[in-house]
């Protein structure tokens, strides 16, 4: 396909406004592309390499302007182009208006004698350009790009300049390519979507659709060495999780950097969240996986920087390791990292994306299990997962989840992830099936107006404290707090409150307003259960506000404001 034909179609697409029209035009272009389909698809998205490939074209604006200026002849300088760009705001428009070409002598540079541009020759030149390194490479790159611009007509220059700067601006996104592929080759959109998720390669999927139809698209699976987009989480509460699922898979939320581990059983590659190859930066993770995993597998997890005792360090430390390109051994002495794998996308030759989290976690444990370690554990009845595997607890109990959160925070982690144990793995999707627990943003200072004596060994300490907010002169209840309090604190609180007890009925005691608790909560709901007309969901004791008297406690009006802000 001539690059001019591609550019002409881009112009039509850019001029179209309705999504359906754009999709049809894209579909027509894909059908016409034939053998050059993969390249055309990537070009439409402003790419030369598929999304999973970390190779960068790495053409900076300056380099592009230099090549353009040279192709435009003696009278045009880089400064002219920059000035023109400042007016137009689009390099495509600037390039189109330049009188390119005809620079004889040098004109044949990189052209192999061709006078027109073909889609494939543009791709070949751009790939060669990306691979050019070393002394004088900048000049060589300008020469190569000049060779392309010098053969470009107006409209070609518009899209070529945008392509090399990776901004096509024709209104074609990944969704358009998905729909255009489905339309062009008569393949169900869902099948295209799924193949895109597992391959991250729009060109490959389109080419499979063209040559093998639906069957070919359905055959595309995860492949070791080809990273996929990570599944993402939304902010959510324990209440959201318990309302949505019978049981919650609870994991610690590690404060590090996302990592995808690929191994064929021998060699290991590591990819960052945006699919960059970070293998060389993290040799200890590579060594760990090489030593532990002896089958092809793709794992998802977090790498965390740790200190000499294995305690987590802030995530900036791990980022420093990610960025490090040289002196890695030195950096490794400075900041050590540890893998916490929490998912398994592929094992034993099987793509596991459609398996449940429960099953995937079991596969993860199996993949990272060390035989001797497992045997020793089985003998001693230990149930901790193998080294490198993040723990997963199943719980339907808010108090238990709260306890896990305290443990996570005490161990220096960020908090909790709450996941649907039956959920499948959806790459790139920020769905409702993984929730990062929202930290308490606001706290309330509530007056303790009642309590209950405990049971059993706690019979002589108060637990479950009734909380109230001020309403004029009165105090109106808003909830009860029983979590977040240690045994020691319970004893202290009992001492503190005992002298304020007004009356008792069974185990329930009435307490005169005197003591103020700071409480965290997940949300406030309207509720007839309490006098204030509101209820705190999952309130947690954060501490006694010794510095506050009941008159300084929060009011019902503040609660109303908090609810309306939500
Ligand atoms: P955020 O970056 O705040 O959107 O939180 C989501 C990120 O938390 C993920 O992309 C991971 O990098 C990280 N994370 C830490 N621990 C876990 C875990 N157990 N499960 C999933 N993601 C986790």
Write up this protein.
- With 566 residues, the protein is an alpha+beta fold.
- The protein folds into three domains: 3-164, Orthogonal Bundle (DNA ligase i, domain 1), CATH 1.10.3260; 232-437, DNA ligase/mRNA capping enzyme (D-amino Acid Aminotransferase, Chain A, domain 1, 2-Layer Sandwich), CATH 3.30.470; 443-565, OB fold (Dihydrolipoamide Acetyltransferase, E2P) (Beta Barrel).
- It contains 21 helices and 19 strands.
- Strands 11, 12, 13, 14, 15, 16 and 19 form a seven-stranded antiparallel sheet that branches. Strands 1-10-9-2-8 form a five-stranded mixed sheet. It has a five-stranded antiparallel sheet with strand order 4-3-5-6-7.
- Strand 11 and strand 12 (462-471) form a beta hairpin.
- Helix 5 (78-88) crosses helix 6 (91-97) and helix 6 (91-97) packs antiparallel against helix 9.
- The longest helix has 18 residues, at 202-219.
- The chain is elongated, with a radius of gyration of 31 Å.
- The two termini are 55 Å apart.
- 40% of the residues are buried.
- Bound molecules: adenosine monophosphate.
- The site of adenosine monophosphate has 11 residues, from strand 2.
Give a short summary of the structure.
By secondary structure, the chain is of the alpha+beta class. It is built from 21 helices and 19 strands. The mean pLDDT is 91.
């Amino acid at each position: 396909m001539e690059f001019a034909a591609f550019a002409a179609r881009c112009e039509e697409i850019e001029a179209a406004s309705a999504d359906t029209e754009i999709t049809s035009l894209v579909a027509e272009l894909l059908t016409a592309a034939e053998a050059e389909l993969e390249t055309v698809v990537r070009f439409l998205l402003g790419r030369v390499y598929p999304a999973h490939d970390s190779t960068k074209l790495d053409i900076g604006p300056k380099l592009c302007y230099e090549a353009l200026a040279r192709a435009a002849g003696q009278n045009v300088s880089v400064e002219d182009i920059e000035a023109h760009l400042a007016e137009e705001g689009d390099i495509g428009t600037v390039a189109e208006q330049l009188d390119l070409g005809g620079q004889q002598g040098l004109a044949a540079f990189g052209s192999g004698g061709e006078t027109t541009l073909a889609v494939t020759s543009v791709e070949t030149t751009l790939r060669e350009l990306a691979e050019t390194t070393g002394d004088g490479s900048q000049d060589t790159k300008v020469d190569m790009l000049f060779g392309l611009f010098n053969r470009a007509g107006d409209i070609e220059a518009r899209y070529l300049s945008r392509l090399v700067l990776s901004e096509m601006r024709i209104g074609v996104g990944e969704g358009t390519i998905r729909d255009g592929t489905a339309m062009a080759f008569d393949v169900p959109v869902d099948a295209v979507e799924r193949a895109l998720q597992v391959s991250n390669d729009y060109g490959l999927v389109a080419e499979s659709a063209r040559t093998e139809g639906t069957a070919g698209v359905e055959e595309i699976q995860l492949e070791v060495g080809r990273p996929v987009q990570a599944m993402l989480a939304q902010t959510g509460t324990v209440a959201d999780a318990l309302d949505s699922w019978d049981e919650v898979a609870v994991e610690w939320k590690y404060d590090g950097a996302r990592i995808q581990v690929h191994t064929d059983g021998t060699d290991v590659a590591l990819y960052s969240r945006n699919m960059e190859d970070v293998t060389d930066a993290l040799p200890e993770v590579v060594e760990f996986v090489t030593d532990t995993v002896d089958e092809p597998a793709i794992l998802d997890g977090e790498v965390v920087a740790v200190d000499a005792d294995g305690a987590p360090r802030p995530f900036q430390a791990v980022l420093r390791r990610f960025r490090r390109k040289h002196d890695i051994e030195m950096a490794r002495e400075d900041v050590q990292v540890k893998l916490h794998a929490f998912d398994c996308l592929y094992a034993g030759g099987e793509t596991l994306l459609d398996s449940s989290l429960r099953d995937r976690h079991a596969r993860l444990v199996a993949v990272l299990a060390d035989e001797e370690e497992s045997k020793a554990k089985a003998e001693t009845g230990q149930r901790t997962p193998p080294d490198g595997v993040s723990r997963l607890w199943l719980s339907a109990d808010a108090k238990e989840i709260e306890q896990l959160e305290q443990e996570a925070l005490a161990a220096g982690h960020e908090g909790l992830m709450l996941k649907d144990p039956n959920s499948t793995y959806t790459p790139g999707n920020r769905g409702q099936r993984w929730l990062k627990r929202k930290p308490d943003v606001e706290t309330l200072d509530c007056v303790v107006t009642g309590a209950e004596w405990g049971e059993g060994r706690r019979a002589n300490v108060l637990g479950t404290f009734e909380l109230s907010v001020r309403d004029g002169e009165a105090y109106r209840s808003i909830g009860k707090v029983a979590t977040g309090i240690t045994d020691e604190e319970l004893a202290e609180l009992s001492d503190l409150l005992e002298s304020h007890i007004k009356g008792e009925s069974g185990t329930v005691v009435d307490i005169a307003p005197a003591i103020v608790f700071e409480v965290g909560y997940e949300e406030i709901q309207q509720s007839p259960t309490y006098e204030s007309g509101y209820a705190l969901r999952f309130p947690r004791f954060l501490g006694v506000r010794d510095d506050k008297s009941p008159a300084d406690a929060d009011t019902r009006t503040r609660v109303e404001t908090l609810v309306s802000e939500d």
